[in-house]
Amino acid sequence: MSKQMTEMLKGVLEGIVLAILSGRSAYGYEITAWLREQGFSDIAEGTVYALLIRIEQRGFVDVAKVPSEKGPPRKVYSLNAQGRRHLDEFWKTWSFLSERLEQLHKGGT
Amino acid sequence: MSKQMTEMLKGVLEGIVLAILSGRSAYGYEITAWLREQGFSDIAEGTVYALLIRIEQRGFVDVAKVPSEKGPPRKVYSLNAQGRRHLDEFWKTWSFLSERLEQLHKGGT
DNA sequence: TACCGGTAGATAGTAACACTGAATAGTGGT
DNA sequence: ACCACTATTCAGTGTTACTATCTACCGGTA
């Protein structure tokens, strides 16, 4: 992972995970694998798990422990109402930033 | 400044400032004022100055001390060749992230 | 003179977040 | 008994933006 990407993910990775969870429930290992498929090649596993614990403590997700056939039990996370509100805020913030950067990229001061 | 925006600016603010400097030279006070006009209403002045010192130490900008009629001398920053390369890298990283988020926002897993 | 607002920059300490590296645990196959 | 894969956790580190404060220069005003 480039240092640039590491810094840029701050605040964004949380939104990405919430967005994933807005579509379907998922557990940590699964989310990490999905992120890697999407080109976030070197996302650290520990990072995702820490993030999940964080959003759980903030009350954005509900958790269910589900047995796995292939290993230890999974913690399946699903977005709740508060999480959806927070995700909405995330998209607003992202959109603002994205528009400003789009303008800058096109050469407009 | 929302906490969300604060986190999201990490890694991005540096790119924004480099992008500004790619268009024209500027000094800290001026950059802070410009950012506020653009809607980054509560960017802390200290943040911009610290960032400028950082990119100077990394060799992305050249500095000239220019006397001001209205106050203490200004430190005018201009992007050099290394800074332009770094800015290119920033735009690549940003584009990658932006595309992924665009997909997520449109409901695609 | 003394003071204040606007201009301009610097800095010590704090909080938040992603990363590193390692550990723990369950299951199935050899 | 060992290994690979699945699955989660955690202590310690580095980077970044913020808070709050400080220094400093100039012009205008009481």
From TrEMBL, chains A, B:
It comes from the Bacteria. Residues 17-88 form the Transcription regulator PadR N-terminal domain. SUPFAM superfamilies: Winged helix' DNA-binding domain (SSF46785). InterPro entries: Metal_resp_DNA-bind_regulator, Tscrpt_reg_PadR_N, WH-like_DNA-bd_sf, WH_DNA-bd_sf. It holds the Pfam family PadR. Gene3D superfamilies: Winged helix-like DNA-binding domain superfamily/Winged helix DNA-binding domain. Coiled coil: none annotated. This is PadR family transcriptional regulator, regulatory protein PadR.
